[in-house]
Amino acid sequence: MALERFPCLAECGFNQKRRRGKKRAGPASSGSRFFCAYVPNSFRAMCEVLQNSDSGLHSENVNEVFFPPCLCFSFLQFPPKQSAPESLMNRPSAAILCLLASVAGFLGARSLSAVDNPPSAADRARQDFELMRLFADAYEQIDSNYVREVDRRELVEAAIRGMASHLDTFSTYIPPKDLTKFEQYLDQEFVGIGVHANATAGKLEIVSPLPGSPAFRAGLRSGDAITEIDGKSTTGLNPADVGKLLSGPPGRPVVLGIRKPNTENVEQVTVVRELIQLPTVVGMSRDAEQQWKFMLDEDKKIGYVRITHFSRNTASELKKSLETLVTQNMKSLVLDLRSNPGGLMESAIEIADLFLDSGAIVTMKGRAVPERKWSAKRGDTISDVPMTVLVNRQSASASEVLSACLQDNQRANIVGERSWGKGSVQNVIQLESGHSALKLTTASYFRPSGVNIHRFPDSKKEDAWGVMPNDGHVVELSQEQWLEWTKARETVDVVHGQSSSPESRSYKDLQLEHAIALLTEPPSPEPTSAIPEQDVSKIVVP
Predict the structure, then answer these.
(1) Burial tier of 510 (Cβ tally within 10 Å: 0-12, 13-18, 19+)
(2) Is-catalytic flag, 460?
(3) I need a surface site. Which of 170, 398, 488, 527 has the fewest CB within 10 A?
(4) E strand or H helix that includes residue 272
(5) Catalytic pick among 321, 408, 439, 504
(6) What is the secondary structure of 230-258 as a DSSP string?
(7) Which residues pair with 332 in a beta bridge?
(8) How far from the centroid of its chain's Cα atoms is residue 396's Cα?
(9) Which of 213, 395, 422, 439 is catalytic?
(10) Cα distance between residue 53 and residue 163, in whole Å
(11) At 372, phi and psi to the nearest 5?
(12) Which helix (H) or strand (E) holds 139?
C-alpha cells in the first residue's frame, strides 16, 4: 500500500501507540451461541463507529471503547422467531433487530440527556432505528440469499468503508490487516534490513540501502540483485511477497542470495533484522560516509534541508541538522517541502515554532471539537536567518500548514508552484479496542490570515485554496521538467558508494536556483506589519 505518494495521508491524530488487547467475547449462555458468534464479529465495529463518531471521542483520548451493556443482553430476552419459507424476503434477523433496537435506544438515551427538547430527541431515536433497520434488512438479505456464501465481517467492513468514502476522499476505514502498516507509515519506522528495492522483469534489485542500516553494514549496494531470501527464489515475487519475506522480529537473521552487477556469482549474505527509522530530513548530497550534507553553498553559507514527511521524529531530526548548519556559520536557508504529502500536524506546528519568536501558527475548527489555536513561543528558535520555502503541486496538508504560517508571518518567501490545497484534519478513532480504526475528517485548519486553504470539488482557479508562491516567485514546471526533477531527486536519494552522483550534479533545478537567487539578493526592508499573536498555550495536536 504505497500511501506515501498521496496527500490524503496528511495530519492524523496518532499521539499514542495502539493498545493491543484481546477481543471481548459476547455473553455466555446456552441460548446465545448465535449471538456470541454473530454479533461481536459482525457488528462490533459498526457499533463502535456509531458510538465514537457521535461522541467525539478519539483514539488518543481513550484506551478502550466501552461496549454498552444494553447491546449485550437484548438477544437473551428476545430469541429468534421461526418464520415460514414464503416470508423469507420480509424477515430481518431477530438478533440483528434486537441489537439495533438497543443501539437506537442507546443513541436516543444519549440524545435525551444532551438536549432540552425530549420530543425531538425521541424523533431522532426513531429515525436512527428506522435507518438501522434498513441496514439490517439489506444485511440479512445478502447474508441469507446471495448466490454464494459471504463472509459476514467482510460485509460489515464494506459497509463501513462505504460510509467513510461517502464523506470525502480522506476518510477511510483501516481494517486490522492494514493497521500496523498505517502506524509504521506515521512513525516512519519498521523492522527489516533497510533497503529500497524494485521488482522488475521478474528480478528483485536493490535501488538503495539506507545508510547505517543492517543491509548497508552488510555491504549491499545499489544495483545488487537479491536472488534468494532464506532459500526461496525471488523470481516472479511481487513487492508484497518480498516485504513479508524480509520482515520479521528484530534480532532474527535472514540469509540473502546476492548477485553483484556484471557477475554471475551468487553470494550468501546474512543480515540481522532491526528496527529501521526512515529519515524524514535529508540534504542535497552525501559525504564520503554517506551521511547527508546540509550546506548547499560553502562560499555563500546557504543551508538546504528537505523534509520528505512529517512524522513523530521529524522536528528532532530538523533540530539536529539546523544545529550542524549553525556551527558551520549558516547565513541563509532553503527549506524544501516539494512533494511532501504531509503527516502529523503536531510535527508541522513544532517546526513552525522553530522559526518564529511570536505570531499565530494555525487554528483548527470542527463541528464536534473545540476550536484550538497555536502560537509561536520565544526560545529555541532560529528567527534571524533569511529563508525561502520551496513548494510544488504535490506539497499538501502539514507541509501547507508550515509554509502558510511562515508566509503569513512574513518569515519566509514561498517559491515554486501552487500547493495541493488540503485544509482538513483527520483524526484516527480506535475500533475493536485498537484492532481496527476509522480515519475520519473531524476539523478544518485555518492559516494565520484566517483563510482555509482547502480545495473543494467546486473550487475555481481564482479561489484562495492552496499556498501560492509570493508575487514574482512562481516557477511552474512543464510535464517534461517535472519528470526530470523527479528522476534527479530519486538519484540524489540513492546511496552510490561515493560522495555525490554525476546525475544529480548535471540537473538544473530551476525552482531551487530561483530560491538561491532570492537569498543572495540585497535584503528587502523590514515589514511594517505582522500577523498578531494569538495568546494561547501550545498544546499537542490530536
Answers:
(1) middle
(2) no
(3) 527
(4) strand 266-272
(5) 408
(6) TTEE-TT--HHHHHHHH---TT-EEEEEE
(7) 302
(8) 11
(9) 422
(10) 12
(11) -130, 140
(12) helix 118-145
Question: Which of 59, 397, 399, 433 is the catalytic position?
Answer: 397
Cβ-based neighbour number of residue 442 at 10 Å: 22
**For the chain, domain boundaries:** 3-167, 189-277, 281-520
Neighbouring residues of 428: CB distance < 8 A, sequence distance ≥ 6: 12, 13, 14, 58, 59, 174, 437, 438, 439, 440
From first to last of the 542 residues of the chain, give the pLDDT tens digit: 333 333 333 333 333 334 344 333 333 333 322 223 233 333 444 444 444 444 333 333 222 222 233 333 223 233 333 333 333 344 445 455 555 554 555 455 444 444 455 558 888 888 999 999 999 999 999 999 999 999 999 999 999 999 999 999 999 999 999 998 898 888 888 889 998 888 777 789 998 888 888 998 999 988 899 999 999 999 988 877 888 899 889 999 999 999 999 899 999 999 999 998 889 999 998 888 888 999 999 999 999 999 999 999 999 999 999 999 999 999 999 999 999 999 999 999 999 999 999 999 999 999 998 999 999 998 878 888 999 999 999 999 999 999 999 999 999 999 999 999 999 999 999 999 999 999 999 999 999 999 999 999 899 999 999 999 999 999 999 999 999 998 888 888 887 654 444 444 568 999 999 999 999 976 554 443 333 333 322 222 32
- Give every CB contact of residue 149 below 8 A, 6+ residues apart in sequence: none
- Which own/partner contact pairs does 83-91 have at CB distance under 8 Å and 24+ positions apart? 88/144, 88/145, 89/141, 89/145, 91/140
Catalytic residue flag (residue 422): yes
Among 528, 328, 336, smallest CA distance to 414 is for: 336
Q: Measuring CA to CA, which residue among 164, 158, 64, 43 is closest to residue 426?
A: 164
In total, the chain counts a number of residues equal to: 542
Q: Does domain 281-520 have CATH number 3.90.226.10?
A: yes
Superfamily of domain 189-277: PDZ domain (2.30.42.10)
Active site residue 81: no
